[in-house]
Specification:
The complex is a heterotrimer of chains A (471), B (358) and C (297). Chain A has 24 helices and twelve strands. With 471 residues, chain A is an alpha/beta fold. In chain A, strands 1, 2, 3, 6, 9, 10, 11 and 12 form an eight-stranded mixed beta sheet that branches. In chain A, helix 12 packs across helix 22. The two termini of chain A are 28 Å apart. Chain B has a six-stranded mixed beta sheet, with helices on both faces. In chain B, strand 11 and strand 12 form a beta hairpin. In chain B, helix 2 runs parallel beside helix 4 and helix 3 crosses helix 4. Classes of the chains: A alpha/beta (471), B alpha+beta (358), C mainly alpha (297). At the A-C interface, helix 4 and helix 22 of A face loops of C.
Chain lengths: 471, 358, 297
C-alpha cells in the first residue's frame, strides 16, 4: 500500500515537472508546505535558508512567524480545521498534552525510529525528546532545547570593589547564585539609582538588580514562577486525584519570594514579557536574570544584544535552588510538529523538512556561523571549541543530566491563564495573599477538571516514558 | 435717553470702503430712520453704532461720550434684530432674564421689569412659551420686550418688520410707534421700506452707496427732495420725470418738455439758466385731471385702489401716472382726459447733477 | 389590477432576496448560532470533551463570576473616563476651530486624522509612546525630571493610558459633530448677547450648550456603544493587564472563547453583557430625553 502510494506520488511529480530525470532523488519535489511558527531563535535561524532545502529536495517551505502570545490560539484553530492551511506547526512543549489529546499532531515515533541513524537520535539529550511526548508518543521534534538558567553580569561580579562591598554587606563571596536567597541578595545589592556608582562609574540611569516577567500576558509570569515553585519543592498536580495542587506551602513561599524581588525590578515589572525582560540583560541594564536558554543565546550575538557590543561580559550558570544542592533542572523544548490533518504526502515531505532543519549538520553550521541556538545535541554542546565560543553550552549540557520535564497537561492553557492573571494580581497588590491568589487559580482549573473521572485525570498527569527512547 | 452723533464715520472692509464718512446727529428722544435700498450702508452704520462692527475712521458719540472703542455692552444700547435673535431653547421670560443677567439686578427688580414689558407689549400669556411656539409678530414683540427691559438709552432696530407679512407689519409698526411715544427713548431704525420710514420717523436719513443723500422730516423729504434719487425713492407711486429745457418766453423762463410748456415755479425762476437741460418731477397726486386741463392725455390703464385711482396716461410721447380720488375716476368709456399742472408743485432738477434747483 | 399588484409584489420580493440573504448570513445566523452555543459545552481545543446541552449552566457561571463583574465595572470606568474627556475636549476644540482664525480650516482637517486610523495602529502608536524604557512619552517627561512612568505596566496607570489613547482617537468624532452643529447655529443670538453684555461663559453655558445638546446626546450615544465594545487598543497595549487592570468585557469574552476555548461560556457572557448594556444605555438616554422634553414644556 505504502509502496503503491509512493509510486503514485512519484508519477505525479514526474508529470508535474515534465520529465525531470532526477525525480527519483527528489520524491517530494513540487510539494508546498506552510509552517505556523514563532519569530524567535528556534525559527529565525532556519527561516532565511529554507531556499537551500528547496534546492536540495524540491519541497517549498513557507514559514509564517508570529509572536508567541496568541500563537497557540491560531494553532488550535488550525488544528480544528479539516482542511488545514499549515502542515508544519511550531510547538512549545507544554502544548503537547492539549494538542496530543485532541489528536492534532502526527505521531513521529515510527519515523524517528526508522531514521534513527540519519537523525542521530542517540545524540539528542533524552529529556528533549521526552518533552515532546504525550502518553509516550513523540508528537514533535526538538528544534531548540531549553533549560531555565541564570545569566549574570560577569564583569560586575569580578569587579574587586563590588565584590568587596558585597562581602562586607552579606558576609559571603559574590558569585553566581546557588540559592534563591543569594539570587535575591545579588539583585538587592546591584539595584542602584541614577547618580550612584556601579563598578566605579556614575550611572546616568537607574540600574536594576534583576528583571523578572510579572506580566499576565500569555501567562508570562507563570514561566518565571514555575521554575521557582519547582525549586521550592512544589508540584503542579496531586498524584492521588490528578487535580491542581499548587496551593501548598512551597507554592506560597515561591510566590512570596517572587514578590520580594519586585523592589529590584524595573518600574514596569507588571508589563514585562519574555522579550522585554530579557532586553534588560541584553542591553546590560540588570545584574542577574534567570530565563529560558532560548533567549540566552541572543547574548552572544551582537546583532541581538548590545551587551556584547558594549564589551560587557555575561556569565552563565544553572538556575538556583533552595538549598544549593542540585535539583532536577527545569527544561522545555521548542519543536516542530506535523499537522495530523495534512495529507500523507505532505506529512512525509514535512518529516523530510524536520529532519533537515534539526540535523546535526545544520545545527553545527548555525553554531559555527555565530548564530546562537539553544542546542539539544550532545556532540555540539560538548565540542570544546564551541564551548569556548558559547560559554552557556556547558550549562546546557551539564544541567540536563538531572532534569525533569515541564508541565504537559491538556488543560495547560487554563493553568497558564488562570495562574497568569491571579499571580499578577497578587504581585500588583490586588490580591492580599499568595494563598488566596493560588487558591483562586487552582479552583478555576479544578472546576474544569473535576467533571472528568479520576482515571482520566491521572492519565493526563502521567509522564509515560518516550517509546522512541526505549532500547 | 441720549443723543447719538456720527462724525465723518467711515467703514472699510479691507480695501473696499462701504460707508464714506457720514455725519449724522440724532437728538435725545428722537426717532431716526435710516432708509435706503439694500447695500446702501444703512445696516453697516447701525451695526457700527451698536459696536458689532468696528469703525474704520471718524468718531461716534453716544450721550456726548466718544464710544468708538467702547464694547457694545457698555454703550447702553439695545438692539432688535431682523430675525428676532431670540434664544430658541429659552422661554419668553428666560429670554428677558438672560438679557438682564449682566446687570445683576435684584430678583424682584427683574420680575418687575419683565412684568412691565410684558404688560406693555401684551406678552403676559406668552411668558412661559418658547420662540418656536410663537407667531412672527409675537416673536418680534418678545425681541422688543427683551430690548426694553434693559432700559437702554438708545434703541437700535435692524429691519425689524421685514420678516413679517404685510398685515402684521402694519400692526407691529403701530406698536413700535406707541412704544416710542411711551418710553421716549432715542431710536435709530433701519429699513428699506419708505412707508415704515414715513410713518415712524421724526427724521429720515436717506442713504445710497454709503452716502447720506438727505436728512429731514418725512414732510421735508417728501415735499422738498434734494435730488432725483430722493425724489424717486420717496413717494408711492413714484414721481413722474420728464426731460425738459429751459426756454425764455416774454422774458420769463418756461419749461419745455416735448409738447408741454410749463411755467416755472415762481420760487426758482431766478435760478434757471436759459437753455439748460433739466428734469421735471411731478408727483402723481399733483397732476390735475379735469376738463379745465391744458393737455389731452390717453388713459391706457386705470388701477382702482378703493379710495383712489391710478391713471396710467400717455400724453404725446410722455408716460405719466396720475393719482386721483376715486370719485374723480373717468367714466369707463372715456378714451382720454384733460390734465393740468400746478407750477408751484413742480420739482425741477439739474439733469447733469441730479440736484434739485432751488 | 390585482394581477398587476401581485406581480409587483413578487418582483419586489425577488429584489429583496439578496438583502435578506446577506442580512441572515452576516447578522441573524451568527446571532442565533451564538445563542445556541451559549447553552452548550463547547471547547474548540478539546474535542474529547462532549459538546452537550448544559441548560443555563454557562449563564449561571457568568453571572456568579467575579471576573465578569470586574470586567463590567472596568468597562464602565473606562467609558466614564473616555466619554467625559471626549465630550469636554471635543466641544472645546470644536469651539476653537470654529473661530474665524487663520489656519483653523487646516487644523479641522488635521484633527480628524486619528479617527481615520485603524484602532490597532492607534494602539501601536501609543505603544511606542508608552514604552517604559524606550517610549517617547517617558523620554519627554524625563527631560523635565519626571518618571519613568510605567504607563501600561502599572495597575494604577494602565486604564488611564488606554483611556488617553481612546480619547486621542475619538475626540475628533465629537469635535466634528459639534463643529457641524455649531455652524448651523444662527449668529444673531450671539450678537444680541454681545450687546446685552452676557459673559462668554454664560453665552456658552446658556446659549450654545443647550442648542448643542441634542447633537451631543446622539454623539455620546454612538460613543457609548463603541466604548462598550472597546477591544483593539487594549489588545495591543495591555491585553487586559497588568493584573486585571484593563480587563474589559470584550477581553473577558475573548479569553473565555479563545484562551480557555469555552465557546459556550463566551457566548453566554456576550448575551449577558448585551442585555446589560442595552438596558443601561436605554435607561440613560430615556432619562436625558425626558429631561429635555421637560425643559421644552
Amino acid at each position: 500500500m505504502m509502496q503503491w502510494k509512493k509510486t503514485m506520488w512519484a508519477a505525479g511529480a514526474v508529470l508535474a515537472m515534465t520529465g525531470a530525470a532526477w525525480a527519483q532523488d527528489k520524491p517530494f519535489a513540487g510539494v508546498e508546505l506552510k509552517m505556523l511558527g514563532i519569530g524567535d531563535t528556534s525559527v529565525t535561524r532556519v527561516a532565511p535558508i529554507v531556499g537551500e532545502f528547496e534546492q536540495a529536495t524540491g519541497i517549498k517551505v513557507h514559514i509564517d512567524q508570529l509572536p508567541y502570545p496568541g500563537l497557540i490560539d491560531k494553532i488550535i484553530v488550525e488544528a480544528s480545521s479539516d482542511s488545514p492551511t499549515y502542515q508544519l506547526l511550531w510547538v512549545d512543549s507544554p502544548w503537547v498534552g492539549m494538542l496530543g489529546e485532541a489528536g492534532a499532531l502526527e505521531d513521529l515515533t515510527s519515523r524517528a525510529k526508522r531514521d534513527a541513524a540519519e537523525i542521530g537520535l542517540d545524540d539528542i539529550i533524552p529529556i528533549q525528546l521526552q518533552e515532546n511526548t504525550w502518553q509516550g508518543k513523540l508528537l514533535a521534534f526538538p528544534a531548540s532545547g531549553m533549560v531555565w538558567s541564570t545569566n549574570y553580569r560577569k564583569d560586575l561580579f569580578e569587579n574587586p570593589e563590588e565584590a568587596a562591598a558585597f562581602k562586607a554587606k552579606y558576609g559571603y563571596d559574590l558569585a553566581p547564585a546557588k540559592t534563591w536567597a543569594q539570587y535575591r541578595d545579588i539583585a538587592e545589592f546591584f539595584t542602584r539609582k541614577k547618580g550612584e556608582k556601579l563598578a566605579g562609574e556614575v550611572l546616568d540611569k537607574d540600574f536594576y538588580g534583576t528583571a523578572q516577567a510579572y506580566s499576565r500576558v500569555q501567562g508570562a509570569i507563570t514561566h518565571d514562577y514555575f521554575p521557582i515553585m519547582r525549586a521550592f519543592g512544589g508540584d503542579y498536580w496531586d498524584p492521588k486525584t490528578g487535580l491542581c495542587a499548587m496551593t501548598g506551602e512551597p507554592h506560597i513561599k515561591a510566590a512570596e519570594f517572587m514578590k520580594s524581588l519586585i523592589p529590584f525590578n524595573p518600574p514596569d515589572y507588571l508589563g514585562l514579557m519574555w522579550d522585554l525582560r530579557t532586553g534588560y540583560m541584553e542591553r546590560g541594564e540588570d545584574a542577574i536574570s534567570s530565563y529560558w536558554s532560548v533567549r540566552t543565546v541572543r547574548l552572544t550575538n551582537p546583532a541581538e544584544a548590545k551587551v556584547a557590543e558594549k564589551g560587557l561580559v555575561v556569565g552563565y550558570a544553572p538556575s538556583p535552588t533552595v538549598d544549593g544542592n542540585p535539583q532536577p533542572t527545569y527544561t522545555g523544548a521548542l519543536s516542530f510538529a506535523i499537522n495530523s490533518k495534512a495529507t500523507d504526502k505532505e506529512k512525509e515531505a514535512a518529516w523530510v523538512f524536520i529532519k533537515w532543519a534539526t540535523s546535526e549538520k545544520l545545527m553545527r553550521r548555525f553554531a559555527e556561523e555565530g548564530q546562537g541556538v539553544s542546542q539539544f545535541r550532545k556532540s555540539i554542546l560538548s565540542d570544546p571549541a564551541l564551548q569556548a565560543k558559547y560559554p552557556y553550552y556547558k550549562v546546557l549540557l551539564e544541567s540536563q543530566k538531572n532534569a525533569r520535564r515541564r508541565i504537559f497537561h491538556p488543560f495547560y492553557q487554563a493553568v497558564e491563564e488562570n495562574f497568569g492573571v491571579e499571580l499578577s494580581k497578587y504581585m500588583a497588590g490586588e490580591t492580599a495573599t499568595a494563598k488566596e491568589a493560588l487558591e483562586t487559580a487552582c479552583n478555576a482549573v479544578n472546576s474544569q477538571l473535576s467533571i472528568f473521572p479520576v482515571e482520566q485525570r491521572l492519565r493526563w498527569i502521567n509522564d509515560v516514558p518516550a517509546e522512541v527512547l526505549a532500547k | 435717553m441720549s443723543s447719538v452723533t456720527l462724525r465723518k464715520v467711515v467703514k472699510r472692509y479691507g480695501q473696499v470702503e462701504v460707508v464714506h464718512g457720514i455725519d449724522l446727529s440724532v437728538e435725545e428722544g428722537e426717532f431716526v430712520v435710516l432708509l435706503g435700498p439694500s447695500g446702501c450702508g444703512k445696516t453697516t452704520t447701525l451695526r457700527m453704532v451698536a459696536g458689532l462692527e468696528d469703525i474704520s475712521a471718524g468718531q461716534l458719540e453716544i450721550a456726548g461720550r466718544v464710544v468708538n472703542d467702547v464694547a457694545p455692552k457698555d454703550r447702553q444700547i439695545a438692539m432688535v434684530f431682523q430675525n428676532y435673535a431670540l434664544y430658541p431653547h429659552m422661554t419668553v421670560r428666560q429670554n428677558m432674564e438672560f438679557a438682564l443677567k449682566p446687570q445683576k439686578l435684584a430678583a424682584n427688580e427683574v420680575s418687575a421689569r419683565i412684568a412691565e414689558a410684558a404688560r406693555i407689549l401684551g406678552l403676559e400669556p406668552l411668558l412661559a412659551r418658547k420662540p418656536a411656539q410663537l407667531s412672527g409678530g409675537q416673536r418680534q414683540r418678545v425681541a422688543m420686550a427683551r430690548a426694553m427691559v434693559r432700559t437702554p438709552k438708545v434703541f437700535l432696530f435692524d429691519e425689524p418688520l421685514s420678516n413679517l407679512d404685510a398685515k402684521l407689519r402694519t400692526q407691529v409698526r403701530v406698536e413700535i410707534a406707541k412704544l416710542h411715544r411711551r418710553l421716549g427713548t432715542t431710536v435709530l431704525y433701519v429699513t428699506h421700506d419708505q412707508v415704515e420710514a414715513m410713518t415712524l420717523a421724526d427724521k429720515i436719513v436717506i442713504m445710497k452707496d454709503g452716502h447720506i443723500e438727505q436728512v429731514g422730516s418725512p414732510e421735508e423729504v417728501f415735499a422738498k427732495p434734494r435730488n432725483l434719487f430722493v425724489a424717486t425713492f420717496i413717494g408711492s407711486p413714484a414721481m413722474n420725470l420728464l426731460p425738459a429745457k429751459v426756454a425764455v418766453v416774454n422774458g420769463a423762463p418756461v419749461l419745455v418738455a416735448n409738447g408741454f410748456r410749463l411755467a416755472a415755479p415762481p420760487s426758482i425762476v431766478s435760478a434757471l439758466d436759459p437753455g439748460a437741460s433739466v428734469t421735471l418731477g411731478i408727483r402723481p397726486s399733483d397732476i390735475r385731471v379735469d376738463e379745465a386741463g391744458d393737455y389731452e392725455a390717453v388713459v391706457e390703464v386705470d388701477e382702482y385702489l378703493g379710495t383712489e385711482v391710478l391713471l396710467n396716461l400717455r400724453a404725446g410721447n410722455h408716460e405719466l401716472v396720475a393719482q386721483v380720488p376715486a370719485a374723480a375716476r373717468p367714466a369707463p368709456d372715456r378714451q382720454s382726459v384733460r390734465i393740468g399742472f400746478d407750477a408751484a408743485r413742480l420739482h425741477v432738477f439739474d439733469t447733469q447733477s441730479g440736484e434739485a434747483i432751488r | 389590477m390585482s394581477h398587476t399588484a401581485n406581480r409587483d409584489r413578487r418582483i419586489a420580493a425577488v429584489f429583496l432576496i439578496p438583502a435578506i440573504v446577506v442580512l441572515f448570513a452576516t447578522t441573524i445566523y451568527p446571532m442565533l448560532y451564538a445563542l445556541w452555543l451559549s447553552f452548550r459545552n463547547y471547547d474548540l481545543a478539546k474535542p474529547f470533551i462532549p459538546r452537550i446541552f448544559v441548560g443555563l449552566a454557562n449563564y449561571a457561571e457568568v453571572l456568579t463570576s467575579k471576573a465578569f463583574f470586574h470586567a463590567l465595572i472596568t468597562t464602565f470606568k473606562l467609558m466614564a473616563m473616555t466619554l467625559s474627556a471626549q465630550l469636554v475636549l471635543g466641544v472645546g476644540i470644536a469651539l476653537l476651530v470654529s473661530q474665524k482664525l487663520p489656519g483653523m480650516a487646516l487644523a479641522r482637517t488635521l484633527l480628524l486624522i486619528p479617527m481615520m486610523i485603524s484602532p490597532v495602529i492607534v494602539g501601536l502608536v501609543w505603544l511606542f509612546l508608552y514604552f517604559p524604557e524606550l517610549g517617547y512619552l517617558n523620554y519627554f517627561l524625563g527631560l523635565v525630571g519626571i518618571g519613568p512612568v510605567p504607563w501600561i505596566s502599572s495597575t494604577q496607570w494602565a486604564l488611564t493610558a488606554i483611556a488617553i489613547g481612546d480619547i486621542w482617537q475619538w475626540t475628533p468624532f465629537i469635535m466634528m459633530g459639534t463643529a457641524a452643529a455649531l455652524q448651523s447655529l444662527s449668529p444673531e443670538p450671539y450678537e444680541a448677547a454681545r450687546i446685552d453684555g452676557n459673559s462668554r461663559w454664560d453665552v456658552f453655558r446658556y446659549v450654545t450648550l443647550p442648542q448643542l445638546k441634542p447633537v451631543l446626546v446622539s454623539l455620546l450615544f454612538l460613543r457609548a456603544i463603541d466604548a462598550f465594545k472597546i477591544y483593539d487598543i487594549i489588545f495591543v497595549l495591555t491585553k487586559g493587564g497588568p493584573a486585571d487592570a484593563t480587563e474589559v468585557i470584550s477581553l473577558y469574552i475573548y479569553r473565555q472563547s479563545f484562551t480557555f476555548w469555552r465557546m459556550g461560556v463566551g457566548a453566554a457572557a456576550s448575551f449577558v453583557s448585551l442585555i446589560i448594556i442595552s438596558v443601561l444605555i436605554t435607561l440613560f438616554f430615556k432619562q436625558m430625553q425626558r429631561g429635555q422634553a421637560a425643559r421644552a414644556r
